[in-house]
Design a protein that fits this description.
Layout: H1 3-15, E1 18-19, H2 20-29, H3 35-38, H4 51-54, H5 56-72, E2 79-84, H6 90-99, H7 105-108, E3 109-114, H8 118-128, E4 134-136, E5 147-152, E6 161-165, E7 170-178, E8 181-186, E9 207-210, H9 212-228, E10 230-239, E11 248-251, E12 254-256, E13 266-268, E14 271-272, H10 273-280, E15 284-285, E16 289-290, H11 291-297, H12 300-308, H13 313-327, H14 332-335, E17 336-342
Parallel strand pairs: 2-3, 2-5, 3-4, 5-10, 10-14
Antiparallel strand pairs: 1-7, 6-7, 6-9, 7-8, 10-17, 11-12, 11-13, 15-17, 16-17
The chain binds S-adenosyl-L-homocysteine (SAH).
S-adenosyl-L-homocysteine binds next to helix 4.
Length: about 350
């Protein structure tokens, strides 16, 4: 048994089976043994790779998209430039480099990063130290001001709960202990008020997921944007409404059993963008748009061609592969999607429509 398996097993022995959300929180964020707290999981040597680690073009285009939204809202002379779960800080580094020549943008920006992992905060400080970022544990700590925000692969890391529909009510997935092994089981059926809207599109046996921290975060973003102006670009895998078990564990770029080695594998779930959009009201939201379509509209192909002029051999091949990986429907282009939030009366951020 690993140290974290023992900690979870002891808790279950004391209080009974725990929810999937409690399990995920401990696996990902336990102060000594949590997945994010103890390592930098990104890149070829880690467990997974993300769009900003694949190519600089991703952060550049997202930065310019936010800068255009800022200009469309009258270029407020003081605003919060925020990122949720900035990983290694690569996305923000590319965004800041690309926007350096947008008149007034950097002078007006105050950089805020919401990051739970001390290891990744250190990586972010290496790349973004020159911009004096201010770190926060949670979004509610952001100051009240116009908010221009990016979240790439942040919401998929937040803890979910799973419910299987019964003839009457819902049975929740609970993690228990069987012969010293962590195993998921189902609670007795009970009504769940938060799932009233899923009674029409589900039948007994169907599984649905909820993510209270995701809705809470979207509500904070939406309230700030509605009150002070701003825009949020949320990019992740998922769909307008998710159905079925989407919990996924990745270790060394391979899928693995989410309950086999807690704290050793990345745990994620698909994002339910409908829940985010609803929680963010009164802010407006755009249509959910495939990442490939969004990046093409922002001009990734001319940008890729401009960068290609200075490359040759293996680095040119890598660059062409990266462009394809970010945009092609068979790679990240369709699985990943973008939702933007913006205030009433302002246009949606470039590349997105209502
Ligand atoms: N956006 C980056 C990293 C994605 S990985 C990229 O695209 O490369 C998820 C990120 O969210 C990591 O930085 C992780 O430490 C952070 N994170 C996960 N759960 C969090 C939480 N509850 N609060 C704050 N940060 C969290």
């Amino acid at each position: 048994m690993t140290a974290l398996t023992q900690i979870i097993a002891r808790q279950i022995a004391k209080t009974g089976p725990i929810t999937l959300a409690e399990y995920m929180t401990t696996c990902l964020l336990h102060p000594q043994h949590g997945y994010y707290t103890t390592r930098d999981p990104l890149g070829a040597a880690g467990d997974f790779t993300t769009a900003p680690e694949i190519s600089q073009m991703f952060g550049e285009l997202l930065g310019l998209c936010l800068a255009q939204a800022w200009m469309d809202q009258g270029a407020p002379d003081h605003f919060i430039l925020a990122e949720l779960g900035p990983g290694r800080g690569s996305l923000m580094q590319d965004a800041l480099r690309a926007t350096a020549r947008v008149p007034g943008f950097h002078a007006a920006a105050e950089l805020h990063l919401v990051e739970a992992s001390p290891t990744l905060r250190a990586e972010q400080a290496k790349r973004l130290g020159g911009h004096t970022p201010i770190w926060h544990d949670q979004i509610s700590d952001l100051p009240e001001a116009p908010l221009f925000l990016i979240a790439n692969e942040f919401f998929d890391a937040l803890p979910i709960r799973q419910f299987t529909r019964a003839e009457e009510g819902w049975r929740e997935t609970m993690i228990g202990l069987q012969d010293d092994t962590l195993r998921p089981g189902l609670s007795d059926a009970a009504p769940v008020a938060a799932l009233a809207h899923r009674l029409n599109d589900t039948k007994p046996g169907d599984l649905v997921e909820t993510c209270a921290p995701a809705s809470g975060t979207a509500a904070q973003i939406g309230a700030r944007i509605a009150a002070h102006g701003g825009a949020a670009l949320i990019i992740d895998y998922g769909d307008w409404r998710t159905l079925g078990d989407t919990l996924q564990a990745l270790q060394d770029h391979q899928p693995t059993d989410p309950f086999a080695a807690p704290g050793q594998a990345d745990l994620t779930a698909h994002v339910d963008f409908e829940a985010l959009a609803q929680a963010a009201a009164p802010a407006c939201h755009t249509k959910l748009t495939p990442q490939g379509v969004f990046l093409e509209r922002l001009g990734i192909t001319p940008r890729a061609q401009a960068l290609a002029r200075n490359l040759q051999g293996a680095s040119l091949e890598d660059h062409i592969a990266a462009h394809r990986r970010l945009t092609h429907p068979a790679e990240m282009g369709s699985l990943f999607k973008t939702l933007a939030l913006f205030p009433k009366g302002a246009p949606p951020p470039p590349g997105l429509e209502t």
